[in-house]
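Hey all, quick one. A colleague (J.T.) asked me to put the zinc ion job into the tracker so the inputs and the structure tokens live in one place instead of scattered across chat threads. No bug as far as I know, just bookkeeping. Sequence used:
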Amino acid sequence: MSADCAECARLDREKEAARKSGDLSKVTDCDVLLRRHPHHSKGRALAGKGRA
Ligand SMILES: [Zn+2]
């Protein structure tokens, strides 16, 4: 898994660290945050700016 943005890279490292320390709730948290990152989604399907 390659993280293109610094934010995702940080979250990924945090997730790895959390998993190694057995903090599964934090692992899930990081996973959610990673999935919520819209700026580098495949195919950039979200074309509407400011659309909630
Ligand atoms: Zn990102």
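Adding what we noticed when we looked at it: The mean pLDDT is 80. The pocket of zinc ion is lined by residues 5, 7-8, 37, 39-40 (CB under 6 Å).
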